[in-house]
Fold these 3 entries.
Entry 1:
Amino acid sequence: MSKVIISVAVTGAIHTPSMSDYLPITPQEIAEQSIAAAEAGAAIIHLHARDPNDGRPTPDPKVFMQFLPVIKQSTDAVINITTGGGLGMSVDERLAAPLQAKPEMCSLNMGSMNFNISGSAARIKNFKYEWERPYLEGTTDFIFRNTFKDIEQIVERLGKGHGTRFEFECYDVGHLYNLAHMLDRKVVEPPLFTQTIFGILGGVGAEPRNLLFMKETADRLFGKDYVWSVLAAGRNQMPFTTMAGMLGGNVRVGLEDSLWLGKGVQAKSNAEQVAKIRRILEELSLEIATPAEARQILALKGGDKVGF
């Protein structure tokens, strides 16, 4: 890669309002933080929606439509909408907003998995909202469903139906093989934007050797047919994205993945994290891709062809 694509995951569905006062909740907050992150250097903005009343994840297209047009009008960044949604949402619920918005890009998880974030509950003394504790603690008995049928349905309805391309989220080495299976069967087409994810309990651990192994496996399976990116949860965010940049990869930061800017210091915004990784990469003599360059690298349809 000649230039590094920075993605930013603005709010997600993992962290809850009690974990950070800086987590964007309302459509206005999500829009403002997205725009600021783009101005800081993010070429791709990955988006979830939250109920503005209590911050719980929501699949409601009406909520998405309160911030998607605002972001589009204020920045040229690629807008990437989740198909993972929030814990416990059905596939139809997860697809509701993307099918209406018809974005350039959506995330697509490449396998069913245990997804345990219950440890976060023990670190919170006072919850702002009643839904937070059971939402977190319930993940000891939660399977994040992404069957082969689900994956093919999402590709068919969004990809082939609306020209949306995907950020293929791979939480473990088996997910890379699932993606290779889809490529072999021509369900998906290159270039594959492959996001390798580290540090989620239920997926591959955040160890440097695992990052190298995931890259070596992807290189072997996809050759020149893929574009590699890395994200890591929590305190591993900056070390792993820095390592990815040094190895020729792309990076994802944002408050979905980590609430921290450094040891003991919470990030006050997504833009702070984008600015930090941009500074690190540029000090390593790496160039940052613009949204237009990201579109060219990933063969996207263009912001003028979306539904918002």
Entry 2:
Amino acid sequence: MLVCVALLVYVADQLSKAWVVANLDERTVNPVLGELLQFVFVRNPGAAFSLASGSTWIFSIAASLVTLFIILFAHRIRSIGWAVLFGMLLGGTLGNLTDRLFREPGFGVGHVIDFIQVWGFPAIFNIADIFIVSSMGLFIILTLKGIGMDGTRQTTEPKSDGSVGTAINDEAR
């Protein structure tokens, strides 16, 4: 599941960026749904909101470490929800890392292609960013529901002996 989600996110991100580079002029507003949703092609040398644009190489290293961590940690995941979460994070991270490694101005310092602008939101972003942020939302949901990466769910339901906090296999529910 993790690999399938990661591939889907990565391919969607890279195809959308290829389309943007081939079809849109930089910094030109292209309305999709009026002012609510617009495509504006920008090359982002930094992080969100173009912060730390002089430190692109740091983001390349951080993204490489996140990717390595997910790959090494993946065999421990037994929950579909956590597999989806890490697939979303891996696909998004690889999408932006690919830009940083292989786009202008050079290896490790390339600019990320951003193009989605939503009315009232102060930044322009891309498909990878959507899935990275969404994975963090899913992280919060899974954590609040008490679902562990091994597929068990922490619950406060009392057991027959009166104790609470037992781990229940999520798939048994």
Entry 3:
Amino acid sequence: MSPQTMASFQELMKELKVEAVKRPDLQLVQGVPLPSPSCETWDQLCSFQARPDDLLIATYPKAGTTWMQEIIDMIHNNANLEKCRRAPTYVRVPFIELVPPKPIPSGLTQVQEMPSPRTIKTHFPFQLVPKSFWEQKCKAVYVARNAKDVLVSYYYFIKMNHGLPTSGTWEEHFDAFLTGNVAWGSWFDHVKGWWEAKDKHQILYIFFEDLKEDLKREIKKVAEFLEKDLKEEVINKIALHTSFDMMKDNPMANYTTLPSFIFDQSVSPFMRKGSVGDWKNHFTVAQNETFDEVYALKMAGGPLKFRTEL
């Protein structure tokens, strides 16, 4: 993005009015609950025409999306910090199904106006991704995070993000998450759907917990998938600048460029903990037992294994 385009985007942000930001409802698309504005643009999303060199970053919400966006942008730019701070994450890697209040352009509009090669973000389950991505044989990186930590992180994110439908109290959110009655639907279906698709398409399936365990190892894995041959010092630099503490202090990654009436970071910071095992600070004994019963039923017999602590 050019400095002129970024300046124009910032001017549009200033025009956004508090009263324009109202929490949307959940509506169903092919049985998947989505924020209502995304549903209203479903026809345009379905007919989106991908380009062969498009790269898709896909995740269930709060599974390490921004982390992977930063990692990939740094890989593409050989860890050039100036280039990687040219604009906020949400501008560098547009969220294709996002429909913000006017006059902010939709994610779809942003993507369509981007020059190639484009890196695009989605939270869609596999079956809702525009088919042209697979027709054009695009690559995708999917990040999966253990459900217990996602449940907690998503709760805080919904509370602070006025662009999402509410999921209620902690107890209500817990139940809604387990039944898939939250935006982008069932975590269980999401992670399984992308896992089953990874051998049919060019999809790299990455685990959040592996990123936490050995970030440099996983960066190398992503770079290899993107056919980027990076020197060790570049890998080290990427690992340093995509660490949680560095990203938390980076205004181009921590979403502090959004006004508080959209992302109220006084309620909860966007970059909250980024850890493995925080669910232990929130689940009651009864909730943990309930969760484990549902998890065992929904994930029975499958090959997917998640770590809930390191």
